[in-house]
Amino acid sequence: MFKKSIVQKTLQTILAFLSKITIWRYKPLIIGITGSVGKTSTKEAVFCVLKRKYRVRRAEKNYNNEIGLPLTILGIPHYGRNILKWFSAFFRVIFRVILRQHQYPEILVLEYGIDRPRDMDYLLSIAKPDAAVITAIGEIPVHVEFFADSLEVAKEKAKLIQALPINGQAILNADDEVISEIKNKTKAKIITFGFYEHANIRIMNHELTHRLRSSTEDHSKSSGQALQSDSGQRIINTYGGNSLPEGVAFKIEYQGKTIPIRLNNCFGKPQVYSASAAIAVGLILNINLVEIAESLTDYLPPPGRLRLLKGIKNSLILDDTYNASPQAVHEALDVLESLPATRRIVVLGDMMEIGKFTEYAHRAIGDKVAKFADILFAVGSKARFIADEAGTRGIEKKSRKLNEEQIFIFDDAIKAGKKLDKIIKPGDLILVKGSQSMRMEKAVEEIMAEPERAKELLVRQDKYWK
Fold first, then answer.
1. CATH 3.90.190.20 placement within the chain
2. Fold of 2-193
3. Has domain 307-457 been given CATH number 3.90.190.20?
4. What per-residue string of b and e applies to 426-435 under the rule 16 or more CB within 10 Å gives b?
5. What is the mean pLDDT of each run of 10 residues along the chain (466 residues)?
6. How far apart (Å, rounded) are the C-alpha atoms in residues 126 and 13?
7. Looking at the chain, which residues constitute the CATH 3.40.1190.10 domain(s)?
8. Contact 317/451 with Cβ under 8 angstroms?
9. Model confidence, pTM
């Protein structure tokens, strides 16, 4: 164990040094993104907006810690325990620094992830941003376990905007009360986004979009085939009825101008917030709103982030299995409730790293689930609080839709998936979500219509996770 920690420390030191000299050599514009939810989706949306005009590199996978952030800067993968590959990569980096590679990115879009106090200090010692986005923090953020409360988490994340130069740009969620408490931590210019009427980039008229089912789609209903939308993205076509959920539409108001935004195969406010933050980044880099709106038609959420997938027996799966915080679960439930379905099935795993808030947060979710869900699957020891609250506790029990016979408890995601396989019916919509360590994507793999596409569609499918 001691030897392993020495190796890890040495690797971190080398990566940090090489990252610093690479930034010094190439001087890329750095856009930093932090928050308790929405970092990865925002990163992808920002990349989508910028890639048509600039050479851009964004963090791969969840490269947002003391190892991942330098890997993004250096443009190399994680080589695990292969020392020879690590040394080969280090020599390539040094070679590029000495000879200067002209194709190095003009812009780096980096995620700054924190778990404990002073994590941000270390990441900032490697790369300070020129512009910074704080997505959302919420009342009970993920990773609050090692902090006193959500405000302490916010103060740690606020170090990102504190590190901005005076001519930098802080892009903040106007709807998040915790973020409002820390916005005075920076001397940089602030631009806000959100539904709040005084937001600089104001979101309006957010709505779910549908499209009518064609005769060809009626045929595919029985064959189980997926269809292509006009934009070339795959649209899920397994529902009954005359229309299909297609995505979201909303309007952005900025400096007296209003422009419509359409996101295909994206659902719920989380994706709207991610797109709005990306719009702010585009604007500060002098991309006009029309170009930004056009770029966002290419945006697709990463695997495991509120993506709609084909399920068995003409069902649909709302796959939100990447991770879970209380705020993110509540938002996912809002999306589930807003989409049409014959039955709504909720499959929730434990939420980790929320410390003293664990029971309260899980029970609050159980209370919400019970009011509209038809079936609940709780996976893990902490998720039992969800099941208990949904089935036997809370106020006004008569108003609840769930009863004890519709609640199932499991120890792991695979067992939950196998039970789902037996009870799913045509027209069901199944939300699957939980913290990363619960591996809830395994439940999705049991019930997805195209398991052969799991590597393409699901999160955590590489060799390391498998």
1. 307-457
2. UDP-N-acetylmuramoyl-L-alanine:D-glutamate ligase (3.40.1190)
3. yes
4. ebbbbbbbbb
5. 70 97 97 94 97 95 92 94 94 92 92 94 98 91 76 93 98 94 94 97 92 49 34 40 79 96 92 97 97 96 93 96 94 94 97 93 95 95 96 58 86 98 97 97 98 96 82
6. 10
7. 2-193
8. no
9. 0.88
CA distance 445 to 453: 9
In whole angstroms, how far apart are CA 179 and each of 32, 65, 138, 239? 16, 22, 8, 39
